[in-house]
């Protein structure tokens, strides 16, 4: 089945890799990997599933998860709402009354989540993020320095978002620290196979099905999956839910994860993106898999 879906999607070479962060353009544009990991730990894979690339916005649900573990549901809700904003990922977006970012999966919400991570100092706070992602993946992940430096050199809009959030009191720590952690988390390097295990960990109520280590409590995993359902695909969220019907998250590195709770995680890597910043083949492969395996549940 995976081979068939791969073959159906492989010939679509439309779209282009992201290049607004210079280092992101330095990828083989036609790489394509597809993985499915079950909640009992089996991993099926086809294509370029062991090429390293940066997690980018797929980091957002995992840092949000760690913020929830550190601050609790109410502690996070005081800073970030759970409404789908239907906006592009880099929209400068605040709710009129509370001033909170409405959507935890776009940059304003994600930078706020990064500001809520506990730790002794900046290095410790990022190390806790890195270790959290590693528990989901079941191996020690590291940061791609070149991508981090490229994003830190060019990320003026994200700095502007961080300063704006600080000015209205939603971020109550140094905004440079929060934005730097966000740049670093986006630069964590993963493979398509890692992403499938991370997705399967969400499917398995927060327990990594390969290592059997708990990465997140069951109740917080539910919250993360709910937010991925309504907010994970930016301005394509409605289209995604109607055509794929699974909680998901995409990143401009070319990855997508999708989760069928209790059952499985899917991951795709293909760096050519559509106009909304989602992987062209990634969206097509998830649609096709959902249709063939009747995964559509929400
Ligand atoms: O905020 C940024 O510019 C990136 N580092 C992450 C953006 C991203 O992946 C958006 N996703 N589709």
UniProtKB/TrEMBL annotation:
Phylogenetic lineage: Bacteria, Bacillati, Actinomycetota, Actinomycetes, Mycobacteriales
Residues engaged in binding substrate: 57, 107, 151, 158, 182, 234, 252
Entry superkingdom: Bacteria
Family note: Belongs to the glutaminase family.
Binding partners and assembly: Homotetramer.
The name this protein goes by in its record: Glutaminase
Gene source species: Nocardia fluminea
